[in-house]
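STRUCTURE:
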């Protein structure tokens, strides 16, 4: 049996079980939801167990409360296959009046309008993603986001080189591939991406889609990863080819892919500014893991090293994935910023205590100076009479040293970062 890889979400799950009657863990297939859930559960129901699937689904339809019987916390794996379980869990929590009763896992969203109750106050929600570089052991973790928010001094050195970072992008963060060779890891990523096209996407709404069109769309979307490309731009990529796609269909694809946690776009941040500059509201395009984009671009580590523009975009997506994981453990969220004057920040981490940090993401080199300059301009543009000043500004790089520049901007390699 493979050794369990500790996850940053574990501590949050423990606390949520102490505070709520049930906790729902969502996230893409094979990211580790069930494994982590089992670490905290004392009994389990597997809805996708082929030996008992038909019987379980029939029981969920007739008397779902019977499926809840078992030592608590009880894990209900892939609960969305039997949506009746949601209301049964909510009712059980109300009746028993206790915390830490159930852990639900789900790799596809459910139309909540079909549920009798939202679960507010009874069922907490946590999102799990693929492994961050710190969780997989690739980052030494010598610089934490907490350190940055506390404005403490730091110093560290990233041992991995550019080729190592390129390999981590292509490999992806699925737990099953951590101890595998790059070739095997890429085969596993390919299998996952193939399943998205052939079967997984239909679990979101039951709609069977044209596989060739969907694959072409995913390839076009991958070319625009980490950008704010309009849907019309993504669709236009396909014009002139044998496969034509309209905007409406593309929008439906994004909705379906988001509902199975394959696409996870980065929303725009809306700060108070001193000027009247309009802020762009379009999201930045991202998959839940950058290896998905690498697969559809047919890009290996050497391909990325030969195409630094694509490398930079996929690196940015890698960093966004990790920042989301690290920020979540600090009760924070990640956004992107761009205004119509062209000023931008690749990421903004906003904590629930209103503190925030401004982030640019660059492979390294001379781009670091320009990125630091942009962060300083954005800092000065924020109206600190109406909101706090930024807790930190940082340029996250692929390699090199972690240090604080004379202008106050931190430079931190991704392989030194943790929560």
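SEQUENCE:
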């Amino acid at each position: 049996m493979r050794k369990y890889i500790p996850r940053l979400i574990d501590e949050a799950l423990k606390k949520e079980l102490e505070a709520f009657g049930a906790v729902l863990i969502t996230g893409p297939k094979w990211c580790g939801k069930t494994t982590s859930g089992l670490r905290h559960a004392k009994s389990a129901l597997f809805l996708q167990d082929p030996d008992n699937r038909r019987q379980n689904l029939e029981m969920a339809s007739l008397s779902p409360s019977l499926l809840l019987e078992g030592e608590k916390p009880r894990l209900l794996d892939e609960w969305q296959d039997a949506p009746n379980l949601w209301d049964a869990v909510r009712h059980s929590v109300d009746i028993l009046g206790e915390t830490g009763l159930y852990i639900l896992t789900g790799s596809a969203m459910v139309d909540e309008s079909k549920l009798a109750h939202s679960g507010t106050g009874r069922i907490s929600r946590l999102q799990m993603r693929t492994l961050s570089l710190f969780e997989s052991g690739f980052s030494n973790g010598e610089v934490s986001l907490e350190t940055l928010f506390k404005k403490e001094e730091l110093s560290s050195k990233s041992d991995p080189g550019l080729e190592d970072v390129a390999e981590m992008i292509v490999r992806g963060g699925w737990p099953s591939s951590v101890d595998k060779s790059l070739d095997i890891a890429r085969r596993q990523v390919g299998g996952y991406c193939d399943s998205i096209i052939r079967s997984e996407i239909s679990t979101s709404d039951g709609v069977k889609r044209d596989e060739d069109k969907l694959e072409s769309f995913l390839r076009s979307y991958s070319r625009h990863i980490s950008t704010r490309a309009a849907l019309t731009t993504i669709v236009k990529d396909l014009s002139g080819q044998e496969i034509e796609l309209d905007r409406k269909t593309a929008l439906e694809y994004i909705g379906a892919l988001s509902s199975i946690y394959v696409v996870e776009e980065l929303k725009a941040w809306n700060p108070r500014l001193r000027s009247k500059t309009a802020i762009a509201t379009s999201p930045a395009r991202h998959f839940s893991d950058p290896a998905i984009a690498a697969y559809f671009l047919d890009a290996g580590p050497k391909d990325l090293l030969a195409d630094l523009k694509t490398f930079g975009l996929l690196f940015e997506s890698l960093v966004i994935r990790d920042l989301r994981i690290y920020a979540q453990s600090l009760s924070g969220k990640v956004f992107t910023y761009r205004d119509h004057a062209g000023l931008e920040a690749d990421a903004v981490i906003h904590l629930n205590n209103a503190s925030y940090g401004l982030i640019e993401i660059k492979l390294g080199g001379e781009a670091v100076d320009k990125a630091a300059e942009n962060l300083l301009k954005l800092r000065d543009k924020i109206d600190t009479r109406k909101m706090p000043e930024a807790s930190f500004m940082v340029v996250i790089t692929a390699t090199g040293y972690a240090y604080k520049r004379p202008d106050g901007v931190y430079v931190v390699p991704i392989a030194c970062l943790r929560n």
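REMARK: The chain has two domains: 9-127, 143-418.
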